[in-house]
Amino acid sequence: MEENQNVETETTTVEETETNSAEVVKTFTQDEVNNIVKERLAKAQKGIPSKEELAKYNEWKESQKTQQDKYDELVKEDGEKATTIANLTMENEVLKAGIIDPDEVEFIVYKIGKMEGDFAENLKNYLADNPKYKKQETKATGVETKTNAVAKDDGVLAILKAKHPDIEF
Predict the structure, then answer these.
(1) Mean pLDDT value across residues 125-149
(2) Within a domain: residue 66?
(3) Residue 78: which pLDDT band, with cuts at 50, 70 and 90?
(4) Does residue 70 fall inside a structural domain?
(5) Selection from 98, 129, 123 nearest residue 109 by Cα
(6) 156, part of any domain
(7) Which of 46, 60, 130, 144 has its C-alpha lying 20 to 30 A from 157's C-alpha?
(8) Is residue 140 a part of any domain in this protein?
């Protein structure tokens, strides 16, 4: 008999819920929606400082740094710049040596940068020991290229040069 009582109770609850949900349907006007959005934005922005307050805080934070902190920052920036300059100088040396493949340039800079001694001398020795990097293979693409410069003197140009050697063509 207890089972029958539980079933009846559940049925009643479901019917009451359906009745209540049918009554709660409400529509909002645009003004009401705008007011709800404004209220929620105000709550969300309540703890966020304005741009001016944030700028003042950053100013205050900067003023609280000690001379040692400022010096440490300058030393760190200087070190980063020196490292960048050194890396670019090494890359330049490798490029001057005739290596143009970016992956090979990066590898050679890394490899030789780890060696003791002068970078230029180490590069020279490394490339002498590893001639594969010096050879630049040209790959045929199947596309004919044309040059604008005249490779050989054609007949008319050769005659003019012969008759007028003082004029540069």
Answers:
(1) 68
(2) yes
(3) very high
(4) yes
(5) 123
(6) no
(7) 144
(8) no
